[in-house]
Amino acid sequence: MTPILKASGIQKSFPGVVALANGELSVNPGEVHGLVGENGAGKSTLVSVICGATPPDAGSIEYLGEPFAPRSPREAYNAGIRVVFQHLSLIPFLTVTENLYVGRELSGGLGFLNRGAMRKRVDATLQELGFAHIGGQDRIIHLSTSQRFLVEVAKAVLYAPKLLIMDEPTAALNDAETELLFSITRKLRDEGSGIVWITHRLEELAQITDRITVMRDGAWVETVDSADVTRDAIISSMTGRKITAEALPPPLKAGAPVYLRTSGVSSDDGLHDLGIEVHSGEVVGIGGLAGSGIEEVGRLLFGVTPLRAGTVEILGRTYRRGQLSPGKLSRSGVFYLPGDRMGEGIFDVRPVLENTSVSALPQLSNFGFLRRGEERSSVRGFIERLGIKTRSAGQVIDKLSGGNQQKVLFARGMLTKADVFILEEPTQGVDVGAKADIYKVIHELAENGAAVLVISTDTRELLTICHRLLAVHDGRVIASFNADEVTEDRLVSAYFGQIDERETA
Amino acid sequence: MKSTVGTSAAGSSEPRTIQGVTKAGILVFRKTGALLPLFLIMLLYFSFATEFFFTERNFGTVTTQAVYFTIIVIAQAIVMISGGFDLSVGSNVSLTSIITAMVVVTFSGPGGILLAVALGLLTGALVGAANGLIIAIFRVSPLIVTLAMASVVSGIALIITGGGPIFNLPLEFRQALYTGSVLGMPSPWLVALIIIAVAYVVLYWHRFGRNLYAVGGNPQSAHIAGVPVRWTLFLAYTVAGLLVGLAAVLLTARVGSGEPNLGGQLALQSIAAAVLGGISLRGGQGVLWGAILGAIFLIMLRNGLDLSGVSSYMQMVITGMLLVLAVVVDRYMNRN
Ligand SMILES: Nc1ncnc2c1ncn2[C@@H]1O[C@H](COP(=O)(O)OP(=O)(O)OP(=O)(O)O)[C@@H](O)[C@H]1O
Ligand SMILES: [Mg+2]
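Above: the input entities. Below: the structure tokens describing the complete assembly.
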């Protein structure tokens, strides 16, 4: 059988970095091919070469049995290659339909847009894919991060792709959405498309992939049949070491004060009567389905979106409607890690150093004058501690791989020495090893007396790192569990609204 | 993590020095795009085309001209780093010039001069603050706000004077701020050096500078990281206005009259200089010395063209084309 795609010996260097030393990837028709490797291993760069966005320094690609050297993404697109990028590429102020057709609008004889046809096609596609909660006329800015990702998927599969590459498609998705994406993927596979599936959630490999290619430091390590390998084997060929993802939160201290408490909190967008309590030294997780309102909790508590009713008590101070603001909360010892890394997290044109220290500048200055030496050395400390792959602290953050950018955001929080942490998807896009490091750091924070609230779509993550879990259903906290007394199934059924009497929050 | 310190170490040997120079050259190129080659071409051309260009006297003339413009370009760079720009700098110069001249004509003596300077600076700062307030509170486009402000401020300047200049400024005013010198250095040069030093400290050693770059880099990220976005924007425009006011006071002393048209093409020229110097129109990018280099470049170019007998109308054409070139290079250098 001729593979759909066969890339071999791909090399690509950027100033001071070898991103790809020997990229290899071969994808058969009717196959889901997993592509894994640590943060900065070169996965996204390889995708970028295949889809014509980055010219390689060396190497060759065969596509459908023919030599293939796309000079632009458009050329690759026209050849039937679709990519769902790690970073969202939608235009925020346009509607879903407009985004799906951007650059390739349907038009009638005189060049007038055929809006009706486009709308119909998009609605049909959304329906068929099972994205009932997304409308063709919704504007992108009104969608949540996970919905935006699904729109990217819809855009990629609008016209049956021959080769579909998805770069960490599930990073921002919850379990139900992931399941949905699995079924879409399987359907495409059964229709004969080749699919590349990049992920850091290794448990997905067994569920969806047929073969797996492992990369390390820009080079191909091995390609194996998924049926023949264990998760541990994959990890050790990815990293060259053994990683224990097990992490137990530190024991709770009796009588610790409550640092964060909400009562009767409601928002304009569907959170009702939210009651959360986090003590000093405690890690509390919040989970729920897409649309349940969990995407909004962090923004609401941090004053990014307005409170409609209720009170929020943080570190002994009480805030009501109109009183919460990011500036005020940062100054009083609260740190919020946003879920939308590109839009609300990083400063893409600024160096790693400034991206890391931005929230801690008040502590790092006297009368506004920076202690730059101290700033530099503490940032370097975190670069080392979290294994952030960057040429130097002065490197523009845009040049880092997705997972490494995420680690920078996490380091930003650490540097603030805040007392309350609100972490939204803290490990999205982060590899297994770094995940374990981040879990360890979260537990250290708690041990040192911080209150940590983790909002995550990754149930396993919540079960691993939290003391207590809150399940949100339909805008309310409907159940509260101790992490050591609950199973994943139990938690997920609470997400769906099914609870026992005694679990009621 | 390997440290990259060491190339600039003292007492370095020959190859090290060369390496250092090459490295510095690469850095200049990366930060300021096409400016360096343009600079070299210009210097070469004028040194052949005109006799007078490379003389000590001309150096003095150019430096003095550069002083005022550099201060204004620094002001422009500050607001551009915050993600906007200021089209009202020229009008602000005109209004400040009028106010300063009126005060200094009305009140004689050293006290009058001090008062005139103070009110001149205040005028500049107030115009900037008005820009800043509207942009920060309503988060509206700096393009429209500062363009409208330019019209308002020019109008006020013309109303006050009825269109004509204000003459008969006292000689002491001119002496203090133009012909005078401190420690052998002409006073405008000294002022400019102080401004550059302060701007450097504020941009790179003070929180305000970091916040400025953060706001320009991504305002939403800045807001969420706890940066006071509105306050930073307000300060940026106010400080810029203050600097423009300062340049206007110095310029008034130089031309010896209050001129309602003193600002002329400054808005466009200062943006051109800043962009040439690597200050990106998209905000959050560019360094102080790039802006200064851009300013010096435009002044030298004008001087050289003057010496070669190129008309001022032709010079407008050239400045405009350079701005377009600079914007294109900016886009190309920073595209993803
Ligand atoms: N434009 C660029 N300039 C400089 N370095 C780059 C550039 N693009 C990528 N790199 C570097 O190349 C390496 C590989 O990056 P890549 O994004 O391919 O990693 P990845 O495997 O996708 O990682 P992740 O899992 O974090 O997404 C990284 O070290 C990154 O810093
Ligand atoms: Mg990647």
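Note for the figure: The two ends of chain B are 26 Å apart (CA to CA).
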